[in-house]
Known about the structure:
By secondary structure, this protein is of the alpha/beta class.
Amino acid sequence: xxxxxxxxxxxxxxxxxxxxxxxxxxxxxxxxxxxxxxxxxxxxxxxxxxxxxxxxxxxxxxxxxxxxxxxxxxxxxxxxxxxxxxxxxxxxxxxxxxxxxxxxxxxxxxxxxxxxxxxxxxxxxxxxxxxxxxxxxxxxxxxxxxxxxxxxxxxxxxxxxxxxxxxxx
Length: 169
């Protein structure tokens, strides 16, 4: 292949690469509007009989918003956006599998569900950035290991919220 064709090909590749790098779209704030730098995650209203669930959801969401969306935590009065919600339901001990072997220590697999209504509000505009009613997250666990199922369900819940916020660009 002649040298001029190789140079031309390299130049074309370089131009294509540079064109791809320049884009009018940005991903600052993980998909939130560019002016959203701080977020207040409020403790969710808790309609379930499990008081500790409110704290666990609050802590998990605060940590994920900071680490995965790149926003800072702030009090509600100074935050650019607010995350609020209601824990609607917490169902535990839903049977999903039984062991046929009666000599096994674990006789069943269980599932739990966490259901919540959640919204992210832009405090500058008053606009709802993302909202989900009846957001359901599930976690499976071995019998007598509810904490494992709750941890899995909360991870899934947080992932759904972060993905929802990121999808708003």
